[in-house]
Amino acid sequence: MRQKKTAQSILQWLFTKYLSLVDRTVKVRWYEENTYGDSQIFGFWHEDSFFMNIVLEKLSHKTTPVDVIVTADTRGNYIEHMIKKCGGSALRVPDGYRAFAALKQIVQDSYEKTHSIAVALDGPLGPRHEPKKLAFYLSDHAEEEFVGISISYSSCLRLTRRWDKYVIPLPFTKVTVAVKNYGIVKKNAIPSLPVDAQFVQGVRPLPEGV
Question: Phi-psi region for residue 209, left (φ > 0), alpha (ψ -120 to 50) or beta?
């Protein structure tokens, strides 16, 4: 047990150190069509989970505190650690039928506190790029705007054996982030959500350094 915890601590340290290196060296180009202030529902593709830590840290300075929905199993321990390092908080939700009670509580909390929620649209286990209804259910019932986030990379490692083809951006990469507000979205009227940031229509570039 002690060895397992030690190994977990080492991996968490490596992940956060590498995330810090990426944050210091990448050049990010932002494109946005969104007005911040009130709580919102942020949706992204699961493959972009690593870089989303950096994205959400930047967004947290513009909007209300962001809670990220994370799986309750061991995988979620590493994710939660990085989210906390980036100033966010994790909402741990079990996979499968056990998720119902946790999601019910999240919906209830969305009425009672001014927090934004971020969720991987095709998480936790895919299929890849097929959005589930959770984000849109939250948008519909809490009457909060859904904001889609698409990311593209000039250079990255892609774990092709994983179901999501998880992306690890390389240092000094150029990253494009497109943030688009779709308004309040009904769970039975899911919009078309581009995978590549360069194909998001209607967003405008922000000035350099923003």
Answer: left
Q: Are strands 204-205 and 89-93 parallel, antiparallel or unpaired?
A: unpaired
Distance CA 38, CA 121 (A): 21
pLDDT digits (tens, 9 = 90+) for 146-182: 999 999 999 999 999 999 999 999 999 999 999 999 9
User: Nearest to residue 50, comparing CAs of 19, 4, 94?
Assistant: 19
Peptide bond into 65 cis (omega under 30): no
Preceding peptide of 191 cis, ω within 30°: no
| The pLDDT of residue 97 | 63
Neighbours of 94 (CB within 10 A): 16
Q: Hey, which residues does 168 pair with through a beta bridge?
A: 157
Sheet of 89-93: strand order equals 89-93, 66-71, 116-120, 41-44, 146-153, 174-181, 27-33, 204-205
Give the residue carrying structure tokens 């194909």. 199
- Please name the residues in contact with 131: beta carbons below 8 A apart, sequence gap of 6 or more: 43, 121, 122, 190, 193
How many Å apart are CA 65 and CA 90, to the nearest integer? Answer: 11
